[in-house]
Amino acid sequence: MSSSASGADAAATSNSPAFSCDVSRSVSPPVAPPAVGEVLRLMIDGWPVAVWNIQGNLYALDDICPHRGDILSEGGLARESDGSFAVVCPRHGWRFDMETGDCLHAPDRLRVWLVQYVSDGILVLACPDTHEF
Ligand code: FES
């Protein structure tokens, strides 16, 4: 996880998943990253993605639960015993690791999007795998 930056606009930094990204998408219309403690819901080419700002670090995941399709960003966050964060599905409580997208209850997984926070305050997201855009 990257370190936090200072200043209001620079409060968010990108998380750095260990994978390469093939596809970058500028969020259109351009939007600023969410404030600390907030979540931003986006549709990217019809696909729901949520961007959380947790303690100044940005995490972007698919915003649809692979179990029964609920909206994950309407759930809460949990702090795991190792200090990491998980998003909790509001319907049945499945938890997903914010950095890996792994479900902590089943062999399901959310895709993790690479967040690039460019200098003019515009979010750019990159899909971690070749995706059906
Ligand atoms: S719909 Fe998310 S855990 Fe069931």
Q: What is the helix tally? A: 0
Helix content: under 10%
| CATH class placement | Mainly Beta
* Each distinct ligand: FE2/S2 (inorganic) cluster
CATH architecture: 3-layer Sandwich
**Structural class given helices, strands, pairing?**
mainly beta
Total E-strand runs: 10
Task: Report how far the terminal alpha carbons are from each other.
Answer: 28 Å
Gross geometry = globular
Tell me the quaternary state.
Answer: single chain
Number of domains: 1
Write the layout of secondary structure elements.
Layout: E1 13-14, E2 23-26, E3 39-44, E4 47-54, E5 57-62, E6 77-79, E7 85-88, E8 95-97, E9 112-117, E10 123-127
The chain binds FE2/S2 (inorganic) cluster (FES).
Structural descriptors:
single chain, about 130 residues, Rieske Iron-sulfur Protein, seven-stranded mixed beta sheet, three-stranded antiparallel beta sheet, about 0% helix, globular, binds FE2/S2 (inorganic) cluster
Please describe what this structure looks like.
The chain is mostly beta strands and about 130 residues long. It has a single domain, classed as Rieske [2Fe-2S] iron-sulphur domain (Rieske Iron-sulfur Protein, 3-layer Sandwich), CATH 2.102.10.10. Helices cover about 0% and strands about 35% of the residues. Strands 1, 2, 3, 4, 5, 9 and 10 form a seven-stranded mixed sheet that branches. Strand 4 and strand 5 form a beta hairpin. It is globular. The chain starts with 12 loop residues before the first strand and ends in a 6-residue tail after the last strand. The N terminus is likely disordered. The structure holds FE2/S2 (inorganic) cluster. The site of FE2/S2 (inorganic) cluster has 8 residues, from loops.
